[in-house]
């Protein structure tokens, strides 16, 4: 049996060891330290954001962003439906209710049209439970969470215009889109806050980790305080609000510093893999790619995502996934939309079936920046066997 080809494995450069060894030799093993400070500076310089807090995960960053947006039990927060559950779970942590929004077909991300419809209904008290049909008491949502799914920027101009008009802060879930830009600016800097993830499967990794970025210095200062158990400025341990243990360790930040040095290269490698798939599958009718809608969008193509129309191709998404799996090659269906998840089955949802259809037909292909030519040959042969029906 061949070694497994993973969907998106870590890709170490060797540069990480210097910073890890520095932490070891100087005994900066506990959380915080010079690597954390410098990693935050690296993120700021790369993204163009003025302020950054390095944290234990992207989920922690989103949780803090919602806390800092004063989300309380009974409040509503608008969230993209086609996403990983970590985009929505922190809403539930705070006892709030998500309002899920379907995707637009162009970017596969939050539909501006449906976003505005949801805001109007919330303000007019017209939200309805999909399970019971009962009218829900709402009011102005506390935040909007668009997601730059698989590295593709959302339609930020339209989303920001709507958010500004209704005075609702945007928290950009840029967990998958480090290295992506919209109109030349990094994703994550268009909203009041942006969250990043450095989980082991992301375009760069700190093993586990994340960050919160913002143009507002006070927001990041408050985030850092909350992330270190919200200790008051006193010589003894005193706490006036609930805090969290969310700061990144100095060791993991050292990995991140080495990874940041090769981030531009990793973006180019992921984009090259995406282009290889497009060339390989260009003659197959019924297979479409998640693509940049126009020149305003620049995706890191963290994952190459396709849809397979079985009425045209003659095979399904599952046929391809299972064929790859038999050859020890990992692929994965697109995210199951949040409005279809059992845990959120009573949350309001605004949709026209786009994310449902994408989930039914969509597949993420192996996209690691360390794919070898031999790996691509194996993937190509497995795809060809399936598509040709051999």
How would you characterize the overall build of this protein?
Helices cover 36% and strands 13% of the residues. It is of the alpha/beta class and 390 residues long. It folds into two domains: 16-260, Type I PLP-dependent aspartate aminotransferase-like (Major domain) (Aspartate Aminotransferase, domain 2); 263-387, Alpha-Beta Complex (Aspartate Aminotransferase, domain 1). It has a four-stranded mixed beta sheet, with helices on both faces. It has a four-stranded parallel beta sheet with strand order 4-2-3-14. A four-stranded antiparallel beta sheet has the order 10-12-15-13. Helix 4 (89-93) links the parallel strand 2 (76-80) and strand 3. The radius of gyration is 21 Å and the shape is globular. The mean pLDDT is 96.
Protein structure class: alpha/beta
Number of strands: 15
How would you sum up the major sheet? 4 strands, mixed
* CATH class descriptor name of the largest domain: Alpha Beta
- Put simply, the count of helices is 13
CATH architecture of the largest domain: 3-Layer(aba) Sandwich
Annotated CATH topology of the largest domain: Aspartate Aminotransferase, domain 2
Distance between termini? 20 Å
- Fraction of helical residues: 25-40%
CATH homologous superfamily classification of the largest domain: Type I PLP-dependent aspartate aminotransferase-like (Major domain)
- Give the DSSP E fraction (strand runs of 2 or more residues): 5-15%
Measured on Cα atoms, how large is the radius of gyration? 21 Å
- Overall tally of domains: 2
């Amino acid at each position: 049996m061949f070694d497994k080809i993973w969907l998106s494995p870590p890709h170490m450069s060797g540069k990480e060891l210097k910073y890890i060894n520095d932490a070891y030799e100087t005994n900066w093993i506990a959380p915080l330290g010079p690597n954390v400070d410098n990693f935050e500076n690296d993120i700021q310089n790369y993204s163009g954001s003025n302020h950054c807090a390095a944290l234990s995960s992207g989920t922690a960053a989103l949780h803090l962003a919602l806390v800092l947006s004063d989300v309380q039990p009974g409040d509503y927060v608008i969230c993209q439906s086609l996403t990983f559950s970590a985009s929505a779970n922190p809403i539930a942590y705070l006892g709030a209710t998500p309002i899920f929004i379907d995707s637009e077909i162009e970017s596969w991300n939050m539909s501006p049209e449906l976003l505005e419809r949801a805001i109007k209904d919330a303000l007019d008290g017209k939200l309805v439970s999909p399970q019971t049909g009962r009218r829900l008491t709402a009011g102005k949502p506390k935040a909007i969470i668009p997601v730059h799914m698989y590295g593709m920027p959302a339609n930020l101009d339209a989303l920001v215009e709507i958010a500004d008009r209704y005075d609702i802060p945007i928290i950009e879930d840029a967990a998958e889109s480090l290295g992506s830009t919209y109109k030349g600016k990094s994703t994550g800097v268009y909203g009041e806050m942006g969250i990043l993830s450095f989980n082991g499967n992301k375009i760069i990794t700190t093993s586990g980790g994340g960050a919160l970025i913002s143009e507002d210095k006070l927001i990041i200062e408050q985030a850092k305080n909350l992330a270190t158990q919200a200790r008051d400025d006193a010589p003894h341990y005193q706490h006036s609000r609930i805090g969290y243990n969310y700061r990144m360790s100095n060791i993991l930040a050292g990995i991140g510093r080495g990874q940041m040095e090769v981030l531009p290269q990793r973006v180019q490698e992921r984009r090259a893999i995406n282009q290889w798939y497009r060339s390989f599958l260009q003659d197959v009718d019924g297979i479409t790619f998640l693509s940049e809608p126009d020149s305003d969008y620049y995706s890191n193509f963290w994952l190459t995502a396709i849809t397979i129309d079985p009425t045209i191709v003659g095979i399904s998404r599952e046929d391809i996934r299972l064929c790859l799996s038999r050859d020890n090659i990992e692929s994965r269906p697109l995210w199951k939309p949040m409005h279809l998840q059992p845990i959120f089955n009573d949350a309001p949802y605004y949709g026209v079936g786009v994310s449902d259809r994408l989930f039914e037909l969509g597949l993420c292909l192996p996209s690691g920046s360390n794919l070898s030519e031999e790996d691509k040959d194996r993937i190509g042969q497995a795809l060809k066997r399936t598509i040709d029906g051999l």
